[in-house]
């Protein structure tokens, strides 16, 4: 088992990437982004998650965050969102990709003994401790520039599902603790 991206420092601040299996573009629908955002809010209120920065892209999400038991919080977040996002896809009458997405999630789960019928997230999360100001600034810039580099917006704060709005002095979707 790889130890490359493990949470070793319980007091550390981490850059986390959660990726949808096969890089499927699920977060192109507002309903799914809202479900993921609501789940992050729940983890903030109930599980001690502190979010310093975040961004949801079409097929992955980035967080700069900390929590007393970050590995457990991330595990629970992935488990919960996986189940409810798949349910939302199944129930969405406007989801034109429903059969393809469910087939992909089912195929991914068939390759793993630890998943049920469907697997939404790639198993290994990417967690990197941000143990220097330079690394913190680099990852913060990368996270907020993601939608700009993808060509979705011209300025980072234009992306609704990102903390770039907070860093630009506007009210964002989630509560964040700004990195000074």
UniProtKB/TrEMBL annotation:
It holds the Pfam family Y1_Tnp. One of its GO terms (biological process) is DNA transposition. SMART domains: Y1_Tnp. Gene3D superfamilies: Transposase IS200-like. Residues 9-146 form the Transposase IS200-like domain. Transmembrane segments: none annotated. InterPro entries: RAYT_transposase, Transposase_17, Transposase_17_sf. GO terms for molecular function: sequence-specific DNA binding; transposase activity. NCBIfam families: REP_Tyr_transpos. This is Transposase. It comes from Pontibacter diazotrophicus.
């Amino acid at each position: 088992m790889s130890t490359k991206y493990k949470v070793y420092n319980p007091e550390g601040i981490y850059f986390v990437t959660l990726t949808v299996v096969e890089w499927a573009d699920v977060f192109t629908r507002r309903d799914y982004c809202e479900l993921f955002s609501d789940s992050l809010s729940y983890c903030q209120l109930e599980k001690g998650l502190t979010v310093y920065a975040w961004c949801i892209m079409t097929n992955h999400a980035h967080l700069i965050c900390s929590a007393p038991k970050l590995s457990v919080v991330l595990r629970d977040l992935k488990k919960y969102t996986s189940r409810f996002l798949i349910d939302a896809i199944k129930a969405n009458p406007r989801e034109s990709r429903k059969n393809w997405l469910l087939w992909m999630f089912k195929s991914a789960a068939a390759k793993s003994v630890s998943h049920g019928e469907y697997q939404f997230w790639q198993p290994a999360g990417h967690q990197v401790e941000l143990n220097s100001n330079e690394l913190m600034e680099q990852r913060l810039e990368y996270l907020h520039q993601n939608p700009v580099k993808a060509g979705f917006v011209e300025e980072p704060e234009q992306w609704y599902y990102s903390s770039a709005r907070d860093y630009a002095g506007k009210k964002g979707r989630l509560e964040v603790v700004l990195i000074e």
